[in-house]
Amino acid sequence: MKKLFLLLLSGIISVASLAQTKTVVYGNLGVDNVNISVLDTQHGTVSNAQGHYSLMLSDQNKRINLHYSCIGYQDTVVGITPKQLEKDSLNISFRMRKQAYALNEVNILAERPHFEGDRNIIMDFEVYDGIICMLQGNGNKYRMLLADVDLRVFDTIPLSKRIKPVRLLKDCMGNCQLMASDSVYQIDLEDKKKPFLATERNRYNAVMGDCLFLTDQHLYLRKTIMGGFSAMFYRIDVATKQKQPLFVDDGSDEFKAFIDEMKFDAANRPKHGPSHEDWERFSRIAWFRDSSAHLALVRKRLVYFDHENNQIRQYDLNLNELKSCPIDYPQKSNWKPQILQDPAKNKFYTFIGPWLHEIDINTGEITPKARVNVDIYSKVALWNRHLYILRRQHTSSGKLRSYVERVDF
Questions:
Q1: Which of 43, 96, 279, 351 could tie 336 with a disulfide, CB 3.0–4.6 Å?
Q2: In whole angstroms, what separates CA 259 from the centre of its chain?
Q3: What is the pLDDT of residues 13-63, one digit of tens each?
Q4: What is the Cα–Cα distance from 24 to 319, expressed in whole angstroms?
């Protein structure tokens, strides 16, 4: 009887344990027809006419992200930890935030603020300390537009006819630079009489091209090698001019594999197939790496994204390691090898598939923040929890259309 009782008790405990593997998430969102789904799955539900919803979750072993979306409202992602999933039920209630719309110069596309150049193409843009600087032109005449964070233009700087602009840059000290066909121009946004100071382009690239940031004692630089498959980080002492190696992101194995692929293509290409240049261009895109390691400065700390070893490492300015944590991107096959820094908030982000994710540099935790379609070659910039994107597309008539779009998260 004692043995039977123990077996019965064990069975009850097992059944109770199984019963606790499911958690009901419920709440009120104040809006009907809100789609609630488990991110990266087909599992979800919809809020009713009173804004109430409930959803059964069963996976306790890992963090779950719930995605809340509704037309006319901002997308929201809420993370649920394994510890929270140990409960039988969990109340997640909040009010969906309405999508904000800017007026005046800002037009609306896909329910997001954007600025479009009409007949004048937006060639490039950069964010300089909260000022959105856009390079605009039509092939004969160019100008710089200065806008606030809501993309409302408040000033215009005309360009001389002798300047043939290519793109905008931001140097290691956060200054605005205009790259032209033969020169690089330092732009003084406050000097309206002489806003441009020219430097020969090759000299600028040699002196400033690899610079990342400057501290009181050192200039930090990054140099890519092997066509962008590897990178070396080093710093130069401002006083002594001595060079000190820091980190190496070794992509030599991938580079060798890329070369082998090119040789195979050359040996097996059909006579009437794509040209060698076409194959090389395709192979470079297919093997795209452009060294994913990233070095940044945050409050007198160096933050190094060591993707080769899946680590985020933090150092003081004397190179003493302060802490490190593992980083492992979910769905790494969809990860775009790019780290973005929001200088206004000192936060870091990356793209995984169509989602912008925030990276916690202290824990390595990855949290989705906004769904946005950005290809790997799109120009993007962050400022104060706003993502700015340069979009280009052709209309049905073949006309090129370009605009800067803002995504809030």
A1: 351
A2: 29
A3: 343 344 446 888 999 998 888 888 887 677 888 888 888 998 888 766 777
A4: 48
Non-local CB neighbours of 281 within 8 Å, separated by 6+ positions: none
What ranges in 59-110 are assigned the alpha helix state H?
none
Alpha carbons 126 and 383: distance in angstroms, whole number: 10
Nearest 10 degrees: CA dihedral of 202, 204, 210, 212?
-160
Q: Which of 303, 342, 308 is nearest to 323 (CA)?
A: 303
φ, ψ for residue 258, nearest 5 deg:
-65, -45
∠151-156-161 over CA atoms, to 5°? 130
Burial per residue of 90-116, b for 16 or more beta-carbon CB atoms within 10 angstroms, e otherwise: bebeeebeebeebeeebbeeeebbbbb
Task: Quote the CA–CA distance of 68 and 34 in Å, as a whole number.
Answer: 7
Classified as helix, coil or strand, 18 is helix
Residues in the chain: 409
- In terms of Cβ atoms closer than 10 Å to its own Cβ (0-12, 13-18, 19+), residue 89 is exposed
Instruction: Decide: 124 and 379 in contact? Cβ < 8 Å.
Output: yes
- In 257-365, DSSP assigns E strands to 294-298, 301-306, 311-315, 321-326, 335-342, 347-352, 355-359
Per residue in 233-275, pLDDT (tens digit) is 999 999 999 999 999 998 888 788 878 877 777 777 777 767 7
Cα–Cα distance between 299 and 316 in angstroms, integer? Answer: 10
Contact 209, 196 (CB under 8 A): no
DSSP string across 204-268: HHHHHTTEEEE-SSEEEEEEEEGGGTEEEEEEEETTT--EEEEEEE--HHHHHHHHHHHHHHHHH
Is residue 106 scored above 70 in pLDDT? Answer: no
Residues 295 and 212 sit within 8 Å (Cβ to Cβ): yes
CB 26 within 8 A of CB 53: yes
Sketch out the chain's domains with CATH numbers: 20-91 (2.60.40.1120), 105-208+375-409 (no CATH)
